[in-house]
Design a protein that fits this description.
Elements (H helix, E strand, L loop, with lengths): L12 H10 L5 H9 L21 H14 L3 H10 L1 H7 L11 H12 L2 H15 L14 H27 L1 H7 L3
Helix pairs in contact: 1-5, 2-5, 3-4, 3-8, 8-9
Length: about 180
């Protein structure tokens, strides 16, 4: 996959208007967008080749991963949020009818981050921006290691994988029993 550099076009007008009307005080996703904008877009350039099929913007996947961790979501649940929640669409600068992306994209993104050692660089970039905005004060006890975030998300995805494996095994071994417990 290649990284197609994209200029931040901002939040589409309709998305911004609807989200601001629905959440006048904002949400975590809205505050992240306002604080970071498209800061993360160029931070990932070294992890992606210049040729090949275009990848989903890593500048979008990074904040989705942060919200995923904050809300304790699996990859599938996080991508459902991208499809369903207008404040997440605001964060990503998407139109309200944008279908989002596949759950596997998040896992591949995290693997690429770790492989290229970008997790710490990205965290430092975000922390610096937050300091500049006065949202993070020096001298406090801030955890500055992204490893626990990646590990927690990986654990959730493994649990989801085990659940899906058990469900598919039961569907073959005892379909009558399973259909009584789990709706189609």
């Amino acid at each position: 996959m290649s990284l197609e550099p994209r200029a931040d076009q901002g939040v589409p007008e309709l998305t911004a208007r609807v989200v601001r009307a629905a959440f006048p005080k904002g949400t975590l996703a809205v505050r992240i967008r306002e604080a970071l904008g498209s800061l993360l877009e160029e931070a990932f350039a070294e992890a992606f080749p210049v040729q090949g099929r275009p990848a989903v913007s890593p500048g979008a996947l990074a904040p989705v991963s942060v919200l995923q961790y904050a809300e304790g979501l699996t990859d599938r649940q996080a991508t459902d949020q991208v499809r369903a929640r207008m404040d997440w669409k605001f964060l990503l600068g998407l139109e309200l009818d944008d279908p989002g992306f596949e759950p596997s994209v998040l896992s591949l993104f995290r693997s690429r981050l770790v492989k290229h050692g970008l997790e710490q660089k990205t965290l430092e970039l975000v922390l610096e921006r937050l300091r500049e905005m006065g949202l993070l004060k020096a001298g406090g006890r801030q955890r500055t290691d992204s490893t626990h975030v990646l590990a927690a998300v990986r654990t959730l995805n493994r649990m989801e994988f085990v659940g899906e494996t058990l469900r598919s095994t039961l569907a073959v071994a005892a379909p009558g029993w399973l259909s009584g417990l789990v709706p189609a």
